[in-house]
Amino acid sequence: MTNKPLTEPQKKQSDSIVDTVLSGQHGKHSFQTVYTYIHTRIQRGDWQAHAKLPSVRQLAEDTGMHRLTIFKAYQHLKDDGHVYARDKSGYYVQPPTLQVLTNEAELGLPLFQGNLGDLHRIQVKYQFSQALITPNLLPNHYFAEYVKQVFDLYPKLLGTYAPAQGDLELREMLQHYFTDTSQFHVHADEILITTGAQQAISLIAEVWIRPGDHVLIESPAYASALDVFQQKGARLVPMTINANGYDLAQIEQAMKQYKPRFFYLNPTFHNPTGICISAEQRKQLVDLAAQYHCLLIEDDTCQDIYFGQKPPLPLFAYDTEGYTIYIRSFSKYVSPGLRIACIVARPEWFTSLLAAKSLADGGTPLLNQKVFLHYFTSTRLQQHIEKLRIALRIRFEMMDEELSSTGWYYEPPQGGFNLWVRLPDHLSVPELLARCLKQSISFVPGSLFDHHESSKQYIRLCFSFASEQEIRTGIQQLVAIAKDMESNSSE
Ligand SMILES: Cc1ncc(COP(=O)(O)O)c(C=O)c1O
Question: 130 CB under 6 A from ligand 1?
C-alpha cells in the first residue's frame, strides 16, 4: 500500500470510525476502511508522533468488525511505516524519520534525520545500531524457574507495594556485592533501586538541574543522557574523552570557570567509544571533584562486560569525600526485561533523590526486584556472565576481522558492546547511513553522540546484537557500500 497524499474527501472525513464504516466508502468490512481512517487522522495531525492509537479491541467494538480485520489494517499501517507496535502495549504513531532532503537530491536516497530512538525503531536485518545484547545470548529458559521460585517464597508478592527506596533484601544483597566486588563501604540505606539507569539519570537531572545550569559531559557522550539534561534546560559543557582518557587540565578549568552542577561520566567501557579510564585518572578526578565541590555522576552499565582484564574500580571506590554518585545498571547483561539498576550515594545527597523517586513512581515493581535478587545471587548467573564475555569477544573479533581490510581507525575495546570507528574524511557518514539503511543495515552516526564537529566522521558499530553470521555478512556489505562510494567519488 502506498503513502498517497490526502485528497479533499479524505480531509472532510468524519472523526468517527463508526461514521466511516457506515458510509461504506471502502466496502463495509474491508480492512482498508480502517487503514484509511487511521492513516487520514495521522496525516491530519489528530494523532501526533508516538501517540498511542486505539486498541484493536476498542476499534472492533466500535465498528462491529472482526478483530482480525482491524489487526490486518494495523499490520499494513506498520508495514507502510505509519505506525509501530510495542510489545503488549499496542500501536503508536511512527514519527516521520526518513525525509528526502532536496539539497542532496542527487543522492536520490532518504537521509536519516531523527534521534537515537528514531534510528532504533527502523527495522533492519543487520542491526549494528542498538547497544543491546541479543536475547539469544541471555538464559531465557531459566528465568521462568526464578519467577516460580519467587512466587513460592513470597506468596503475597503481587499484593504488596515495594518501598520507594527499593526492597530491603535486595539492597542488603547489593551492599555486600559492592563491598566484595568493588570495595565500596556502603550501607543498604545508601542504595536506591531504580527502573534502569535511564530512570536514575532522570532523577538526578530532576534533583540537580535548573534551567541555565552548567553540566559537564563527555564528548562524545551517551546520547539519551544528553537529551534528558537538555530537556531540563542545562547548558552542556563538553569534555574530551579519547584513547588517552580525559584531559584533566580541561576538566579542572571547566570546574573552576563554570561551577557546574555535576560532571556526568561513563568511565568504564564508555558508550560510544568503549574507552576505559585508568585507575590513575580516576583517582585524580575524584580529587578534582573534592577540590572544586563538583558532583561526579558515574554511570556504570558495563562493569562486568570485560574481555580480558577486569576494569579498574569505579570512581566511587576511590572517593573518600563523597562527591561521587554511582549509577549501576544490570539491565543489559542480567535481564533487560527486569530493568533493575541502582543509585549509590552518600546520605547528604540521598534524601532528595529518594523524594524524586517517590514522586516518579513510588518504587520499582517488587516482582522485578525479587526475581532479579534470586537470579543475581545464583551460580547460574556467574556461569552466564562468563559465557557472555566470551560470546561478545568473539563477535567483536569477527567485526574486527571484517573491518581489517578497510584501514579505518578504531581502538579495540577491552569490553562493552561497541566499536567507535573513524571513517576517512572523503566518506560522507550521512550518505553511508542512507545507503546502508536501504540495504537493511544500521549503525549510529557519531553526530548523535556529540554536537562537536570532531565526532562527525565517526560511526558506532554495535557487535552485541547481530548474530555471528549477520556480523560477517552485514559488515562485508557495509564495507562494500563504502568502497562503492569511494570509487564513485574518485571517478
Ligand atoms: C551509558 C549508559 N547509561 C544508561 C543506559 C540506560 O540503561 P538502562 O537500560 O539500565 O536504563 C545505557 C543504555 O544503553 C547506557 O549505555
Answer: no
Place of cell 527495522: 123
Instruction: Determine the Cα–Cα distance for residues 125 and 436; give it in Å rounded to an integer.
Output: 11
**Residue 96 has what pLDDT?**
55
| Residue 200 Cα: closest atom of ligand 1 | 11
Mean pLDDT per 10-residue interval, the chain, length 491 residues: 38 56 57 88 78 91 90 88 84 61 57 83 94 91 89 93 96 98 96 98 97 96 93 94 96 97 98 97 98 98 95 98 97 93 96 97 96 94 93 97 96 96 94 95 94 86 97 98 87 62
C-alpha cell at 264: 556526568
Q: Is the dihedral of CA 214, 218, 220, 223 positive or negative?
A: negative
8-96 carries CATH number 1.10.10.10: yes
Output the CA 330–ligand 1 centroid distance in Å: 9
Q: Are 65 and 29 in contact (CB under 8 A)?
A: yes
Closest ligand 1 atom, CA of 341? 10
CATH code of domain 104-136+382-490 = 3.90.1150.10
Pocket mutation for ligand 1, best pick of 130, 204, 222 (most atoms within 8 Å of C-beta): 222
Per-domain boundaries in the chain: 8-96, 104-136+382-490, 161-377
Can you spell out the DSSP letters for 68-128?
HHHHHHHHHHHHTTSEEEETTTEEEEPP--EE--GGGGGG-SPEE-S-HHHHHTS--SEE-
| Cα(449) to centroid(ligand 1), Å | 14
Q: Which of 414, 395, 390 is nearest to 309 (CA)?
A: 414
Cβ atoms of 307 and 389 within 8 Å: the answer is: yes
Residue 389: its H or E element: helix 379-403
Q: Is the minimum distance from the CB of 329 to ligand 1 under 6 angstroms?
A: yes
The three three-digit cell numbers of residue 24, written as one number? 461504506
Asked whether the domain spanning 104-136+382-490 has the same topology as the one spanning 8-96, the reply is no
448 within 8 A of 97, measured Cβ to Cβ: no
User: Pick from 337, 333, 338, 372: which is nearest to 465 by CA?
Assistant: 333
Task: Report whether CATH 3.40.50.1000 matches the domain 161-377.
Answer: no
CA distance 324 to 41: 49
AA letter at 329 = S
Give the model's pLDDT for residue 24: 54
